[in-house]
Design goal:
This protein folds into three domains: about 50 residues, no CATH class; about 90 residues, Nucleic acid-binding proteins (OB fold (Dihydrolipoamide Acetyltransferase, E2P), Beta Barrel), CATH 2.40.50; about 70 residues, OB fold (Dihydrolipoamide Acetyltransferase, E2P) (Beta Barrel). With about 240 residues, the protein is mostly beta strands. The protein has one helix and 18 strands. The N and C termini lie far apart (about 65 Å).
C-alpha cells in the first residue's frame, strides 16, 4: 500500500465509523442480541469499525510526519463554528456541569457556551474541571456534540452555582436549574413560555396538567430547541 503501485493509502485518512444505528437511543452500543444462548440475528459488534481512504495516486507522507505537531488549544465557542475537526484540539478548564449516564454537558466559563458529550464520559464527575483533547465532533439534528475525547488531566472541583443557564437567554447545551413548570402535550409551560420537553425515560413522563419542580434540565436540540430530563431525580411532581 506504500509502493506507488495500484492502490495506495491516503495519508491521515483513518477514521472511526459511528453510524447512528450502531447505538441505542440511550447511547449504548446496539450489541448482538441473544436468547437462550442463540443469536437472534440482531445487533452489531461492540467494537466500532475503522475505515480509511485509498487512491490510485502514490502515497505521499506528510513532510512533517516525523515532527510532533503543536496541538491547537481552543474554546467551546470555536467548536460551534466548524462541523469537523482536521486534527485533535485541546479544551482547557472544561467543567462538567451535568452528567447523567453516558451523557454530560461541559462549559469552560460560567458565561460561555456549553457543549454536549455523547458516549465519551467515562471517568468524568459532575462539578470537576478537566483539560480535554477533543478528537471528534458532530452535529446531530442540530445539536452540537463532542463524540470522542481523551481526558488529559483533572484540575479540581468547581462550585457550579454560576454555571447554570437562564430561561431569559436560552441557548442549546445550557443546563437550567430550579424552576417551576406545567407539563402538557410534550411541552413545558414556564411563566408564559412554551418549550418542548423530552423525557429520556418515557416511563417518567408525567400526566397532562402536572405541575412540576424542575431541578435540572438540559437545553438540547432535536430539529428545534427542547428541554431534556434525564432522571427521576431531576424533577418533582407537585400536583397531578
Amino acid at each position: 500500500m506504500f509502493d506507488g503501485k495500484g492502490l495506495d493509502y491516503v495519508n491521515d485518512s483513518f477514521r472511526v465509523f459511528k453510524a447512528p444505528y450502531l447505538f441505542t437511543k440511550k447511547g449504548y452500543i446496539n450489541s448482538w442480541q441473544y436468547k437462550n444462548g442463540k443469536h437472534l440475528g440482531k445487533g452489531y459488534s461492540d467494537h466500532l469499525p475503522i475505515y480509511a481512504f485509498f487512491d490510485k495516486n502514490p502515497y505521499k507522507a506528510d513532510k512533517n510526519s516525523n515532527k510532533i505537531s503543536k496541538i491547537l488549544s481552543t474554546n467551546i465557542e470555536y467548536l460551534y463554528t466548524t462541523d469537523t475537526l482536521t486534527q485533535p484540539v485541546e479544551l482547557k478548564g472544561a467543567v462538567v456541569v451535568l452528567k447523567r449516564g453516558r451523557y454530560a454537558v461541559v462549559k469552560q466559563t460560567a458565561k460561555g457556551r456549553g457543549i454536549f458529550l455523547f458516549g465519551c464520559v467515562n471517568g468524568l464527575k459532575e462539578g470537576r474541571k478537566y483539560d480535554f483533547l477533543v478528537q471528534d465532533i458532530t452535529n446531530y439534528k442540530g445539536l452540537k456534540e463532542i463524540t470522542d475525547l481523551v481526558k488529559i488531566k483533572e484540575i479540581g472541583t468547581v462550585n457550579l452555582n454560576t454555571f447554570y443557564g437562564s430561561l431569559k437567554d436560552m441557548k442549546q447545551n445550557e443546563v437550567l436549574k430550579a424552576f417551576n413548570a406545567v407539563y402538557k402535550n410534550k411541552n413545558l409551560y414556564i411563566d408564559g413560555q412554551k418549550i418542548p420537553v423530552y423525557f429520556k425515560n418515557k416511563k417518567l413522563t408525567p400526566k397532562n396538567g402536572s405541575k412540576l419542580k424542575i431541578h435540572y434540565a438540559h437545553l438540547g436540540y432535536y430539529k428545534k430547541l427542547q428541554l431534556v430530563i434525564y432522571s427521576h431525580k431531576d424533577f418533582t411532581v407537585l400536583e397531578k
